[in-house]
Amino acid sequence: MIHGKLNTPESHAFLLDNPAWKLAFDWLHTVTPATPLGITQLQGEDIYVNVMTYQTLPAEQCRYETHRKYVDLQYTITGAEMIDWLDRSELLPDGGFDEAKDLQFYQPVPTLSRVHMLPGCFAIFYPTDAHRPKVSDTRHGEVFKLVVKMNLKLVS
């Protein structure tokens, strides 16, 4: 997992030599609170963005997840949430892998590491990074965010 702030270039400058990361971060600099909800393709199915909003929830109501094909670059536009992180080897699957959604859920476990996603913050989750988004920070009830989905073959 990589965590940083968009307005702190040293938190992600080492990624920008890769054209896929450069495309993603350049696009993040165009995001505003007026960015429309939905999916935007940046490079076909290999790099696309899903802009969304939702109510955050108590941690017990959220689930850890991983992906096999895509790396997630999650970015908070407004509001806030907590995202819990664990290495996927620490978890037991909860159901089978959904190939169509590139999604594996896991059985609940206590939180060991938590990232506070405030406006301007990003977190990058690779396939080994189990992450549990949507967790309430108890101060913000909603988050407006996006997830850049990047094909692992482009960024590994």
Description:
This is Toxin-antitoxin biofilm protein TabA. It holds the Pfam family DUF386. With 156 residues, the chain is mainly beta. It has a single domain, classed as Jelly Rolls (Sandwich). 9% of the residues lie in helices and 43% in strands. A six-stranded antiparallel sheet has the order 1-9-5-11-3-2. Strands 8-6-10 form a three-stranded antiparallel sheet, with no helix packed on it. Strand 2 and strand 3 form a beta hairpin. The mean pLDDT is 96.
| Sheet with most strands | 6 strands, antiparallel
- Overall geometry comes to globular
CATH architecture title: Sandwich
CATH domain class name: Mainly Beta
> What is the averaged pLDDT score?
96
Protein name: Toxin-antitoxin biofilm protein TabA
GO cellular component, one term: cytosol
Organism: Lacunisphaera limnophila
InterPro entries: NanQ/TabA/YiaL, NanQ/TabA/YiaL_sf
Q: Any chance you could write out the topology, listing elements then pairs?
A:
Elements: E1 2-5, H1 19-28, E2 38-43, E3 47-55, E4 65-66, E5 70-79, E6 81-87, E7 104-105, E8 113-117, E9 121-125, E10 129-135, E11 142-151, H2 152-155
Antiparallel strand pairs: 1-9, 2-3, 3-11, 4-7, 5-9, 5-11, 6-8, 6-10
Protein name: Toxin-antitoxin biofilm protein TabA
Organism: Lacunisphaera limnophila
Pfam families: DUF386
